[in-house]
Specification:
Elements (H helix, E strand, L loop, with lengths): L5 E6 L4 E2 L4 E11 L37 E7 L2 E9 L1 E6 L4 E5 L2 E6 L4 E6 L9 E11 L10 E5 L6 E3 L5 E6 L24 E7 L4 E4 L7 E6 L5 E3 L2 E3 L3 E5 L5 E4 L6 E8 L7 E3 L2 E3 L2 H14 L20 E3 L5 E2 L8
């Protein structure tokens, strides 16, 4: 690596292990076929390990789903998930009674806090064409003071997420952290991102062919990483960053990214000041001590984090491509001005 601001370059493994406060990120790029009219693949599932299908056979996975792809009900405590879905759909359900269908540019920000069970299924809504899913899920740690905060989720609808329109047709979805004059939506109140001193940024950039993006310098001492999550490579100040790779960089350096390919590609930037607290992590729980982890398992066995209010562990929400959210308090929300895809 010739550039002094580049600390490391590595393949974007699944999951990618991050630097404090980013625990990891999973990038799912599944080229699902046509649906069967009931949200499942119109394709044979022969040769797949149903219940744990991660082999990327034919370019897609069932994951833990047995009919519809996805992740049936499972628990979490002590961190947040930021789920970014540029293409495709997710059906969310949780043990507090919430549910949602989101995607096509939407972001869900879930504070698991003291505990929640949720399911994330990937409905194949289109029976007449492929159902590509491009999804990034970031696990963002919570500081000790917020680990037992109430669980809740927030929807950032694509139509409401601020976008920085830059030279050369570059468009940056500003999910967290101000970019120039573009202010993001408010993060959940108990998030590390709610603290100005944390300098958190989550930016998803779309770079047309031949364009460049100059990424402004931040303060020193932050964790800062870039991830190629689109269909093409980029060059970072002359250093090639292939598709599905990640680069760790110094946070106080100005960087120039170029897309020298023939089509549009995407780049995800993650940045934050480290929390700097001990991390005890096992399976779905992230706490500060082994004793707290043990307590998390005991609490889940006793309470199921609110029980499960749905008929099965892998709920889906109908066959129309209409995005919505129903929150545990009964409030309903839909993106304004949105049309079904």
């Amino acid at each position: 690596m010739s550039h002094p601001s580049i600390l490391s370059i590595s393949p974007l493994s699944t999951p990618w292990r991050g630097a404090d406060p980013f625990l990891f990120m999973a990038h799912h790029l599944d080229l699902y076929p046509e649906g069967d009219g009931a949200l499942a693949p119109k394709a044979s599932l022969a040769g797949r390990q149903i219940g744990s299908d991660f082999a990327d056979k034919e370019g897609w996975n069932m994951y833990h789903g047995d009919r519809v792809p996805g992740f049936p009900a499972h628990p979490h405590r002590g961190f947040e998930t930021i789920t970014i879905v540029p293409e495709g759909y997710v059906d969310h359900a949780d043990s507090l009674g919430g549910k949602a269908r989101y995607g096509m540019g939407d972001v869900q920000w879930l504070t698991t806090g003291r505990g929640v069970m949720h399911a994330e299924m990937f409905p194949l809504l289109h029976a007449d064409r492929p159902n590509t899913l491009n999804l990034m899920q970031i696990w963002l740690n919570l500081p000790a003071a917020s680990k037992m905060a109430p669980a809740h989720f927030t929807m950032f609808w694509n139509e409401k997420i601020p976008v920085a329109e830059l030279d050369g047709g570059v468009r940056v979805q500003v999910i967290a952290g101000k970019l120039g004059d573009v202010e993001p939506l408010a993060p959940p109140p108990d998030s590390w991102a709610a603290r100005p001193e944390a300098h958190i940024a989550v930016w998803l950039a779309r770079l047309p062919a031949g364009s460049r993006w100059t990424i402004p310098a931040a303060v020193a001492g932050l964790s800062r990483s870039l991830h190629t999550v689109g269909s093409g490579a980029v060059s970072l100040d002359g250093e090639v960053l292939p598709v599905r790779h990640t680069v760790q960089v110094l946070s106080d350096a100005t960087l120039t990214v170029r897309n020298d390919g023939d089509g549009e590609t995407m780049l995800l930037l993650l940045q934050a000041r480290p929390i700097g607290e001990p991390v005890a992590h096992y399976g779905p729980f992230v706490m500060n001590t082994p004793q707290q982890l043990q307590q998390a398992f005991e609490d889940f066995q006793r309470t199921r984090f609110g029980q499960w209010p749905f008929a099965d562990g892998a709920p889906t929400h109908g066959t129309t491509a209409e995005r919505f959210a129903v929150f545990p308090d009964g409030r309903e929300e839909r993106p304004q001005g949105a049309a079904a895809d």
